[in-house]
Amino acid sequence: MSTVDALTGQAMVVLQDRPLVALSAWISGAARDCAEAGRALQVVTPLESRVSLPLRTVVAGGGALWIVRHGDGYYEGLTGRPMQWGGEAFVPVPDARDYAPGFTTRLTAPIGAQLGLTYRVRHAAEGHLSGAVDRLLQLLTGKWPAGWGPAEPLEHPWQPDRLTEYARGRSSATIIVAGDGPRPAQAVCEFTTIDGGAVEESTTVTVGYAPEDPPPLAHLPSLVAAMAADQPLATMFVQLTPGRADLTTEARWSGAAAPVALAVAGGVQGPPGVQGSPIGPPRAPMTLFPLGDGRSTDGWQRHRALLAHLG
To answer: pTM to 2 decimals?
Structure first.
């Protein structure tokens, strides 16, 4: 159980002095309460703490701020930006021109790779909502998902019916799905109900790979094709992020994410210099655009050009 350590008109501050800070039901609820009240949720940890993948997703999406305490100073855990207490909330240090010293210290575990696959799909007003994440985790891990829940630790074993019931009973729902198999795998699913009862899903599945176990990028076209054959998708974006194979994040610099590919529904032409290839079955064709090797950030230029071209 967590408690609020400071509550102002601008922020709710929660101190978490533990090795791993997860997206607990309490923190998830606090993030919702802060969003409704117009406050910032600021989770403060020591440098030695790590955050789980679902909590990192919330922080990266702006639903919370991860503040790291190091020595006499503070900084943002994902960016290294120096911070200070401003009386109502933690705010950036004026005129800071460099990373906070703690952010540039050596990681405590080897840097592997985190393979992230983000897909978007629209579900009909009836039927299961679990098929896409189920299928992708099976393709990546060789096994059924292990469990699901709205917060960590996950409350339920894998139950497609219960997941569907939970998501369809809300206008929007965030659900965490745990993968099984030899490598850490997690999915963070966002479901939004739209007019007529249809549901739009945006899900990111992430798999961790150790330094001696590189991600199988050569199999990406066949994986996307197999996914499209079973679950017609609107898009799928793939990127690699340097980081711990256990999918947790330290408050230290590990390297920049880089794009690998973007697949879009239909037969689509890309802009000059970004050539796509048709994949998938005739009933659900997709076009796969290679963007990079997952190591060079130059691929973001092709990614921007492709998105601008596709509108």
So the answer is: 0.96
